[in-house]
Write a structure and sequence with these properties.
The complex is a heterodimer.
Chain A (H helix, E strand, L loop, with lengths): L1 H25 L10 H26 L3 H23 L5 H21 L1 H18 L2 H7 L7 H18 L10 E3 L2 E3 L1 H17 L5 H20 L3 H19 L2 H21 L1 H11 L10 H13 L22 H9 L1 H24 L3 H25 L17 H24 L6
Antiparallel strand pairs in A: 1-2
Helix pairs in contact in A: 1-2, 1-15, 2-3, 2-4, 3-4, 3-5, 4-5, 4-15, 5-17, 6-17, 7-8, 7-9, 8-9, 8-10, 8-16, 8-17, 9-10, 10-11, 10-16, 11-12, 13-14, 14-15, 15-16, 16-17
Chain B lengths: L1 H9 L8 H33 L8 H4 L3 E2 L3 E2 L5 E7 L5 E4 L19 H5 L1 H4 L6 H10 L3 E2 L2 E4 L3 H11 L4 E7 L5 E7 L7 H10 L9 H4 L9 H11 L7 E4 L2 E4 L2 E4 L7 E4 H6 L3 H10 L2 H10 L25 H8 L9 H12 L3 E3 L4 E5 L5 E4 L4 E4 L3 H17 L12 E10 L7 E10 L3 E9 L5 H18 L3
Parallel strand pairs in B: 1-5, 2-6
Antiparallel strand pairs in B: 2-3, 3-4, 6-14, 7-8, 7-19, 9-12, 10-11, 13-16, 14-15, 17-18, 18-19
The chains are: A mainly alpha, B alpha+beta.
Chain lengths: 439, 485
Amino acid sequence: METIIIALSKYLIILFMLAYTFECFSVFRHKHEEGRKRIYIRQNIWMFFMQSVAYLALLLTERDLSILLFYFLQLLIMVAVIVLYHILYPRANRLILNNMCMLLSVGFIILTRLSRERALRQFSICAFTLALCMFVPYFFRRFRYFDKMAWVFAGFGIASLSLVLVFSRVINGSKLNISLFGITFQPSEFIKITFAFAIAGLLYSAVSLKQVLISGCVAGLHVLILVLSKDLGSAVLYFVAYFAILYVATRKLYYYLLGFAGGFVASVAGYFLFSHVRTRVTAWRDPIATIETAGYQVSQSLFAIGTGSWFGTGLSQGLPRSIPVVEADFIFAAICEELGVIFGLCLILICASCFVMFMNVAMRFHDPFYKLLAVGLSTMYAFQVFLTIGGVTKLIPLTGVTLPLISYGGSSVMVSLILFSLIQGMYISYRDENHTHPA
Amino acid sequence: MLKLFHREKNKRERMPQGNREILVITYVFIAAFLSLIFYLLYFTQFVGHDLINNPYNKRQDLYAKRVTRGDILSRDGEILATTLTDENGMEVRTYPYGNLFAHAVGFSTHGRTGVESFENFNLLTSDVYIGERIANDFAGEKSPGNKVVTTFDLYMQQVADVSLGDRRGAVIATDVKTGEILVLLSKPDFDPNTIRLRWDEINADSDRSALLNRVSMGLYPPGSTFKVVTALAYMKEHADTDDYSFDCNGSFTYQGNRINCFHGQHHGTVDFHTSFAKSCNSSFANIATTLNKRSFTTVCNDLLFNNRLPCPYSYKQSVVTMNAGSNIADVMQTAIGQGKTQITPFHMNLITQAIANNGVMMRPYAVSGIYTAYDDPVEETGQEEFTRLLQVKYAKKMQEMMEEVVTEGTGSKVRDTYGYKAAGKTGSAEYSADKGRSHAWFTGFAGVDEPEIAVTVLVEDGGSGGEVAVPIAKNVFDAYFGSRQ
């Protein structure tokens, strides 16, 4: 009986995931948010089914009753988030909300499988942040001076990153974390948000050459400090977000192309300047040839994905722990190994649907500040997904960034939740202002 | 989803500024997401399967819980390795031919080697009908693993085994047209059926080194077989080799460096061809003094010395230390295959195979296909050109010269053959300060109308290549052509 359930759960999880993903895109067939309601409810059902089956399989394989408790806690918080949003913000975007819950659930499932202790820690941070984020849309609607605060955000960002550079200890070759009152933060995660605010604030009103240069200097300083801290993944994200905002603000294609060219030159320069960049490129070109040294991580990741193949090994049936830092940067490999590549593909599609929805929100705004802010946050999100999944599958060299909402890491998941809530806040205030003719 | 954007695009007059730019960015990112998706599809379908068959992938052992390790068969379907399960469900890996395929097939009972290692993943994968696999999954029973069909020829392997006898050495035979490995024999060997019990004892005996696969892991001085390389370098520098002539009185001295012929033999007046056929060291040392060191080094590297080889087995790279800056003593030693030059029998066979195949080296392979437990094909290995090692004209000329080794020179013991014609090069490589002792080498090919099979033989401390190694190769040739009549 047990073996049947474990074997069956593998296929059921994929089936529910496929159904959910399909609904993500079928909502776009309906013009109005009202017409999409039934789909959203179905999505919630698929999500809860998937969660239940996954935790049943985990309970049977890991034989630990605390998993049951953990499952109910999660169920509780997911239901609470969905119901509270429904009551407090009836005009919220349900697709973004559902996707947020779905990505969190996937993260909890795989983290529970990898390390119950870490899953629990991640869960407490999420619960706390989710509670906090309940106020974000409200606050966002009331507080309307963000556009005037560009220099505050810029100064705060540069100062925080500099503090990390000066005071942080080197871990794995990079300076990332700083401890405050016993809690360890990764400021480069939080500064992503203030960075988008700063650049949007600097560029929304005027795009004279002077203003472009000023914003360029601010962005350049952020990126430079990150490069000096050897936090290259974040540096790349800031860089991409800056050029996306600049392009939308100026509406000049050559700025966009300049961004591509600049990115190319910077990558080549990085290759020759930093040995750790060269190591990663070597590992990317042929991880198997350097399996005993630089290529070990990526090789193990590819073994995991390849061994998992389309349907995966089933939860707790693989060996994802053989990949170093699997629960953070390499979580996608663990997901593909145990839940299958089909599941992984669905995950990419869900992230893509989030991004499309984010950009959709950006397009609705007439207010240039919010428009630019939404563009900055969306591109940062999408590019981070691309960097991490591309890295663990060896499409591109590894940059060492997390998969938003799924990877283990307090700062990462907090900032991802804030990012989702901010977009949600923008969407709600847009709909509040235009509620006579909803989109 | 995209329709939504287009609709909004049409109403652009009313829409906020900057939306066209947002669309551009969205499309660029959608392209990035699509590239992730297509890459992952491609990886899973075409790359993953081969990639995960790697000894570093610890996941392979997990498969053993759900799959019974498949059989390994010879090219004619004889079972070389199988898994027997007793009534208690205990599995025993069994090798019916004992020592015979100890290195070729390897073992999986104490670590993994040979075919058991590089086909481990296929052996532990079951590609029987999915319904049966799911049914087994649910019933908690194991599915039968895939069969691996090798390219090994049982009869030829047996002949090689008997011919080499108790001596230490290696024999490898490959099909020059396809790259199939027909014989792979290394001695001393061991019985893979008992390797687990006797591991410590066998592993501790460093004198015998029975666990070492001498075919691909054994590095030996090539001796006169290296004259193939030197002759090629000379041909490349001299369009016309006919005007070469040398008077051999048993030794050659140049700038104080003296090279002796094997056992001090006097070869008299030799031209380029007879120098090669009679394996005249003095003449080749003389040739070495005329060679451009840079292009000689290039010829070596082109023949994959100091390079990676396409080898399914664990292997060592062959070594030539000579370079453009080497002194003349080194070059002279290198030219006759002594000095610091070292080669594996496997690599020697690759070079021979390429010469016999008019310059094109086929990728050598030991597994011709993977089949399910019910003999449905899963994957079949096709022949594949690896690279062109040398131009056709040089290959043809080298074939001719290697034929003369048999008809007029040191390879006479494979002269009188029935139904086929053989060619090759002998070698007697000194390996220690004791000049009287040498490894016996022969590398050559044979065919009825054109070359079909390449055989390389090495006998450690065997003495003369022509006396000791050639007869073993002849037996292997006989087995190949005899069984085909």
